[in-house]
Amino acid sequence: MANPNNQEKSGFSDVRRAARLSIAPMMDWTDRHCRFFHRQISAKALLYTEMVTAPALVRGGALHLLDFTADEYPVALQLGGSDPRELAAAARLGQAAGYCEINLNVGCPSDRVQSGAFGAILMKSPSLVANCVTEMQMAVDLPVTVKCRIGVDDQDPEYALPEFLAQIVAAGCERVIVHARKAWLQGLSPKENRDVPPLDYALVHEMKQLFPNLHLSLNGGITDLDAALNALEGGLDGVMIGRAAYHDPWGVLGQVDARLFGQASTHNTPEAIVRVMLPYIEAHVMRGGRLGQISKHMLGLFSGRPGARSWRRYLSENAHLPGAGPDVVEAALSQVVAQAA
């Protein structure tokens, strides 16, 4: 587990700046191996955990869900829940574990989340969310942020979103990430909720005008760095990218440090990223872990480049085999290098 007192790691002391570009929390995707991999590509972007439920931590004692290493900094913990005191207790655990931010999920539309009375359904209860923010802020010395939708179901986002933001801002929330789509809690699957409801970027920009002191990040439909820069140049404070960064990590993150943070990238090719991952993979396998737990996050590294298909195929076919380790990754890389020659 990371050292919570080490605030000199990349971006830890300036999470607001790191939030200019963040990678969305994604269930089953943004685990610790994914975050370590993304961190090798960008030293500056803000990374998020998968959503961790407050009940799992506080009642279930599942503290292993908080495990991460200092090499992932800056990294934020996203919590799911709706009980202010329980969220406060979970936030304290997150601070003790060393995270640099605690984020409250008010955007996930899945049935499992709805049954727990948290996620996007909380858009209907802004006063409860405000209470949660208040309790969490009293419990920790970290930024407490909120990730939300523009509305749910039959809500009119032009009224629902400003009312929601007004209440959580009054509670002291200073940074919000808005997924610029409404969520339909009935009739659409979680996957459809990521694509079907139309995007309303204009409304998010209006919220920045209405709440000028609120650090506002845009999420939803941003697929490349140029689009992220356009949003920032248009007056927003940050951009959060999800699936695009996962499926094309080099294409999205490879130039983030240089173009958004004015710092040269540590590694200048995806081939270099593979090589820097090899010791991490070897250590994981030596501890009894499986190569596929890491390599699945690396499948898109060469997206759009010669050898990308061979890279994906070789890893997919061999990473699950008994004894698979760094040699499998090196063999996959050799096919990429040969095709790029």
Structural write-up:
The chain is of the alpha/beta class. It has an eight-stranded parallel β-sheet. The protein folds into two domains: 12-261, Aldolase class I (TIM Barrel), CATH 3.20.20.70; 270-340, Four Helix Bundle (Hemerythrin (Met), subunit A) (Up-down Bundle), CATH 1.20.120. The protein is globular. Mean pLDDT is 92; it is low at 1-13. It has 17 helices and eight strands.
Output the keywords.
single chain; 341 residues; TIM Barrel; Four Helix Bundle (Hemerythrin (Met), subunit A); 2 domains; eight-stranded parallel β-sheet; 17 helices; 8 strands; 12% strand; disordered N terminus
Helices and strands in order, then pairings?
Elements: H1 15-18, E1 21-23, H2 32-41, E2 47-53, H3 54-58, E3 75-80, H4 84-97, E4 102-106, H5 111-115, H6 126-139, E5 144-149, H7 157-170, E6 175-179, H8 190-193, H9 201-210, E7 215-219, H10 225-233, E8 238-241, H11 243-247, H12 249-253, H13 256-261, H14 270-286, H15 292-295, H16 308-318, H17 326-340
Parallel strand pairs: 1-8, 2-3, 3-4, 4-5, 5-6, 6-7, 7-8
